Amino acid sequence: METLENVKKVHIIGIGGIGVSAVAKLLLKRSTKVSGSDAAAGGMTEELVRLGADVRIGHDASYLPDGVELVVRSDAVPDDNPELVEARKRGVRDLTYFGFLGEFSKGKRTVAVSGTNGKSTTAAMLGMMLVEAGLDPTVIVGSKVPSFPDGNLRVGKGDLFVVEACEHHANMLKFHPNVAVITNIEEDHLDFYRDRQHIVETFHDFLGQVEKDGLLVLNADDAACAAEIKTIGRKAVTYGVENDADYRVTAVTCVDGRQEFDIICREKRSCRFTLRVPGRFNVYNAAAAIAAAAELGATPEAIHAALDSFSGIWRRFEIVGEHDGALIISDYGHHPTAVAGTLQAAREFYPDRPILLVFQPHHHNRTRKLFGKFVEAVDGADAVIFPEIFDVVGRESGEDAAVSSRDLQEAVLRRDEGRGVNRRVSYASTLDSAYEETVRLMRPGDIVLVMGAGDVYTIADRLIGREG
């Protein structure tokens, strides 16, 4: 980290974001003077002010302090942001969030967790396992981890650095890790990638950047991951449920609000593990974390202790409370696989309770490109409310913007008619109307699953009286 070690004054644009705020906290812990700006105030900006950051609301060139040595910006910040324009005018170096993390990772034993789904949960599980093992890692997660005092950050004194390496805009290529963990490889972010082959090629390039004596931890049940084992000249271990793997999951059961499963390590030793979070996808996340942790030296006892205490992370099947006898769950899922998997998880944990899904699609391009998969993904709900698509600033085109959540509603109704299903499927043009429709439809005993990567979580907050 030689290029960052001596920087004492940093300005962060978009400082309230779940990822970038972790950078702000990391810098503050290193006694770096931190300033920043965000479009709106919120819980994260308020926390950073309490920690000593100088945070301004809105964006203006005058917010860039004198003597600032580095600007870090959220990946969502456009090139015409006035503070960024001013920084470049002054010749101040600027880095994106992942650009900073790539620089920070240099000289550390970096464990990069990537893949289409499950990165945050896998990174959180793995970080907790390494903590229990006494390896004292630094961990940055794109969510809040209850056991981490700083939520999305855990600062350790060891040389291990666990980080999410997001595939959006090929950000994982910012890293040259010692260990790469891949959860799965699916179609997503098709506003950047040409097609599935382009996605696979980019993951191939990322795995090729792993240190020569490093390690790959790959999903044996994911065809694209499995294919990479033969093409990358690195040591690789696999995990899986369906296919043979070095860490093979067997005997999965779901009972009394928990999952249990065995992992057979290289066909020799079997260990039983317990998960307090639902879903087959979380079994995969846990298996990935177990494989990586074991290869890094964590004992079965440490892994057990970490999983026993893992209660989930923010907006990943997060039980936020109740409203008139209905259970309210907030979830970040925004890819068809995640939507379907989370509905299945809710059904497994609450088999006798109706599920009301409030799903806000995220990004018009994703909705258009994966439209048919989204239509099928909501099959597992007993009723569905589609708030209008969350508009991602700077990532929408005219063709994409023509797609609406109303199109999804109509397509789902046609699909339901064809398969002989009669259920309520609603469209809501605003979050306020989505909230009102949720209150109208929900009944005592229902599971209300509020899902999406945009601002739909505010509906869950309103339902439990946690507004503002």
Write the layout of secondary structure elements.
Elements lengths: L1 H4 L3 E5 L6 H10 L3 E6 L4 H9 L2 E4 L12 E4 L8 H9 L2 E4 H9 L3 E6 L4 H14 L5 E3 L12 E2 L5 E5 L14 E4 L13 H13 L6 E5 L3 H6 L6 E6 L6 E9 L2 E8 L3 E7 L4 H16 L4 H10 L8 E6 L2 E6 L4 H14 L5 E5 L4 H6 L1 H7 L5 E5 L10 H4 L3 H14 L6 E4 L2 H11 L5 E5 L5 H7 L5
Parallel strand pairs: 1-2, 1-4, 2-3, 4-5, 6-9, 6-10, 7-9, 10-11, 11-12, 12-13, 17-21, 18-19, 18-21, 19-20
Antiparallel strand pairs: 7-8, 13-14, 14-15, 16-17
Helix pairs in contact: 2-3, 6-9, 6-10, 11-13, 13-15, 16-17
CA radius of gyration: 22 Å
Q: Termini separation (Å)? A: 38 Å
Count, helices: 17
Secondary structure class reads alpha/beta
Please describe the biggest sheet, giving its number of strands, its sense, and whether it closes into a barrel: 10 strands, mixed
CATH architecture assignment of the largest domain: 3-Layer(aba) Sandwich
Unreliable sequence segments = none
* The CATH homology group name of the largest domain: Mur-like, catalytic domain
Number of strands: 21
Give the overall pLDDT as a whole number: 92
